[in-house]
Amino acid sequence: MQRKVNDVGGLPGEHIDSVDHDATFFEKRIDAMLMLLISPKIKAFSIDALRRTIEENTLDDYTKRGYYEKWLYAIRHLLVEQQILSNEEIDQRITTIMQTKG
Question: The whole model's pTM is what?
Fold first, then answer.
């Protein structure tokens, strides 16, 4: 059986920074978005689906993306997979947000 990208048990690893830090605005936004989408009222997808999607990353994506970036890409994938939004709708919203950023 082949290891998934997140299965690093027994492999040599890098130093893990265990010092607490204040959450960034980006991290807070991603966390809030996830909590809304998995809430009992909305139930867009489950936390298990999020985990599955993160584990499907390529090794390159898994190692290059940060913790919350993995969440963000998984959320996008699941919104499309569940036919809640299309890639085009998401891209349009990102464009709008980037144009009004400031």
Answer: 0.83
